[in-house]
Amino acid sequence: MKVLSAIVPCYNEEDNIADFYQEFIKNEQFFGEKEIELELWYINDGSKDQTAAAVRKLIEKDGRVHLLSFSRNFGKEAAIYAGLEKAKGDYVVFLDADLQDPPSLLPEMFGYLEKGYDSVATRRVNRKGEPPVRSFFARAFYRLMRKISQTEIMDGARDYRLMTRPVVDAILSMPEYNRFSKGIFGWVGFETKWLEFENIERKKGETKWSFWKLFIYSLEGITAFSTAPLAFAAFMGVFFCVAAFVFIVFIIVRKLIFGDPTSGWPSLVCIISLISGVQLFCLGILGQYLAKTYMEVKRRPIYLVKEEI
Ligand code: UDP
Ligand code: MG
Question: What tens-digit pLDDT sequence spans the chain (309 residues)?
Fold first, then answer.
């Protein structure tokens, strides 16, 4: 018998735990016929509500359900990694607890693995029900990433992904602290089939991602999968050196031809504030990478476990 493990990161999802189980288990027959057992891991990412209790109730009924509780909220990326470490399956899939990743798509996804793909990823073709400002910035982020990163990061990609054991092991071999899964999935490569589906709005509860949290996460993505901002800093340095040189020549020539009326302090003020602004900005970029490096060399664990059933 082969095993398919589903990994479900949960942060304050008490109302969704049972609903998700009901939906997911509908695939039992399909996979049973293929001699594949199901295994379900709820990764409780430091929920402050009754998420863990809801999962324990399921575990009493069904031995295929497992619970891993973190000691606090470590973020969805940590939950994904923990799930990969725990999953015993020959096939592994991530799904959101809020049913925005429809489990009914699993048979179709599995079909592509049978056709020889190593992983099946999903992306949503629209962003229905999302605030327009958020969609705008999300799109801008993906456009920017396409330009500055060698790793392919798909617009609208969800973390809903089914993959085979070799892909799982490849991802596990990347124990970096600053995790940006959408980039990691692209980076490891393998043959990936993309499925598209219409955005589904969250069933119960509300989104855990504020605009600010998403913004910080996008910086994570940029620093983790591109060093272009560093090159930009160097480019600005070269640019201003050349500009300054041209300026010097200009002033010397002007002095020789017209003499030197003392004027021009407004332009001086503008130039100084522009250049110091650019300098601080470039220092900030450097600081971002330094901070990431700092967190990385500390080698802190990606998550801490409070309870495992
Ligand atoms: N999640 C998590 N830890 C967090 C934030 C979110 O495990 O710190 C989980 C959450 O419970 C859900 C999934 O990640 O199962 C996606 O979160 P959400 O639905 O809030 O994001 P959205 O779909 O709005 O992008
Ligand atoms: Mg959601």
Answer: 899 999 999 999 988 999 999 999 998 899 889 899 999 999 999 999 999 999 999 999 988 999 999 999 998 999 999 999 999 989 999 999 988 888 989 999 999 999 999 999 998 887 777 788 888 888 888 888 888 887 778 888 888 999 999 999 999 998 888 888 888 898 888 989 998 888 777 778 788 888 888 888 888 888 888 888 888 888 888 888 888 888 888 888 888 888 766 677 777 887 888 888 888 888 888 888 898 888 888 888 999 999 888
Question: For a substitution probing ligand 1, which of 96, 130, 161 has the most ligand atoms within 8 Å of its CB?
Answer: 96
Q: What is the second-level CATH architecture of the domain 2-226+302-308? A: Alpha-Beta Complex (3.90)
Name the closest-CA residue to atom 2, ligand 1.
76
Domain boundaries, the chain: 2-226+302-308, 228-298
Using the Cα atoms of residue 206, residue 197, residue 16 and residue 40 in order, give the sign of their dihedral. Answer: negative
With a 6 A CB cut-off, is 203 part of the ligand 1 pocket? no
CA distances from 52 to 98, 109, 145 (A): 15, 29, 37
**Ligand 1 in reach of 207 Cβ (< 6 A):** yes
**Helix, strand, coil share (%) of the chain residues, nearest 5:** 50, 15, 30
